[in-house]
Amino acid sequence: MINNRLHTTAGVKDYLPAECALKTEIENKVKAVFDSYNYKCIITPMFEYMEVYEGTGSVDAKRMYKFVDRDGSILALRPDVTPAIARIAATAYDKADLPFRFSYVGNAFRYNESYQGKLREFTQAGIELIGVNSVEADAEAISVAINSLLAVGIDDFRIDIANVDFLKGVLEEADISNELCEAITDSVIEKNYVGVCDIIKDLDISDKLRNLFNDLPLLIGEIDVLDSAKALVTNEKSINAIEYMRRLYDLLDACGYAKYISFDLSVTGHFDYYTGIVFRAYTRGTGFSVIDGGRYDRLVGSYGASYPAVGFAVKVNDIMSVLAGRDGYGRTVSADYLTVFNDEGRATAMKEADRLRKSGYVVEMGLYGFDIEGSIAYARKNGIKKVLCFEGQNKTEIDTKEAQ
Hints:
This protein is of the alpha+beta class. 36% of the residues lie in helices and 21% in strands. The chain has twelve helices and 16 strands. The strands form three sheets. It has a nine-stranded mixed beta sheet, sandwiched between helices. It has a four-stranded mixed beta sheet with strand order 14-13-15-16, sandwiched between helices. The protein starts with 16 loop residues before the first helix and ends in a 5-residue tail after the last strand.
């Protein structure tokens, strides 16, 4: 029988020093990119009233961790940071202050029925640009995402861009029931294109639309895929979505980011609150996207103030799995000095250690007696550069590389 006192529950983990060092380094580098674009960091509560998340198109209630407060209120652990930031934008700021540029680093919690190695407690770092609905705003969000990946040392990645209006326009053009639209959308989200073909095979739709549904898995690739998609549709919504993506690409190309951009017109976004551009970043070393983002022009309105918005989240834990083992990542900081002292030299050693720390050095106190040889061996094993020996008022400095 498993002793629960000795184990973590499924989907959560302990971070040992090397992992903490890697995680902190990623978060700091990403945050520095956010700061360089003038995004201001805010912190939202770890849990809120269930109503903050309910009905927003965010995470399904079945995947939230919920509990009851003393007054009977239903509370939920934060499953997604974006709705909380939308609430803040709607309730804590004035319209005259638009646009709002917010950034965050924080944990979120989601229940996964099929665990598949996914964490249930995970860290996200992201931005939200609220109050602007323009191709320039979408280009800025994607630019920040690109530079975030470059900042942590990932350069072999691609950003898949889509526009939810493309598929919406296709479904409207097909003129089918809401039930069938939802079934097709769910199959597309799951990349179940066989399921899509099964749904449409008996529908009374044009051959052109039937071919488009069959070709959805092929509408993935470089900029020319937009021309292929445009030739398959006649409705204004889908055509406008394609033309918007082309304008977005032109802006990103002018910034030198075209090599990171591809298109996947079958993408609709994991969350129902997306209203336009959606994008995901993929790289080697993980089977999941490492960044998810998009435009959500209706979400803030559900909290009382109607502002357009775009944003994204960096999946810090997935970035960790990509970078783990790479040279220079996840290394804990070694001390510059190790002190060793006898009883008479204890106070002098502690004072000298404090002086060195205030000068920017890392100093570890030797706590196992006045054993110089043992201290040198310990310092070498742990990458500590020098040993300071205090015997009474006498101080001796030993370089661990040169010591015999």
